[in-house]
Amino acid sequence: MPLNRLWFTVYKDDDEALELWKKAGAPPSVSSRFDEKDNSGRWVIPVPAVLAAKLHYYIGDDLSEQRADMVNGPGDDCIEIWNLVFMQFNRDETKTLNPLPKPSVDTGAGLERVTAVLQVSRTTMIPI
To answer: What is the third-level CATH fold of 3-120?
Structure first.
């Protein structure tokens, strides 16, 4: 996938996920932090609380017009194509996060989105 169209996000204080994105080749200029609304799961309490890291792709025609505020923002020029859900904590009735005894990761990519992106992408590739 063309690196110049990818945007990487993490939960607001998830330094570990941000470092992993950097290690995978994500430039800091296209990495963003988001709060619970955009990079976390919210369900009835108590329940495992999830933090998420996401990969977004700019599908617009003019690369000079892509901006960080398009990620998780209005419009359809920047779409989420992949998410990684980190099941690390249980959120109790007081909203306290307690470590799970067996943390796990759930990952999901929108197959139709990734396929569409790969069909038109042939320059500056990043392995996925």
So the answer is: BirA Bifunctional Protein; domain 2 (3.30.930)
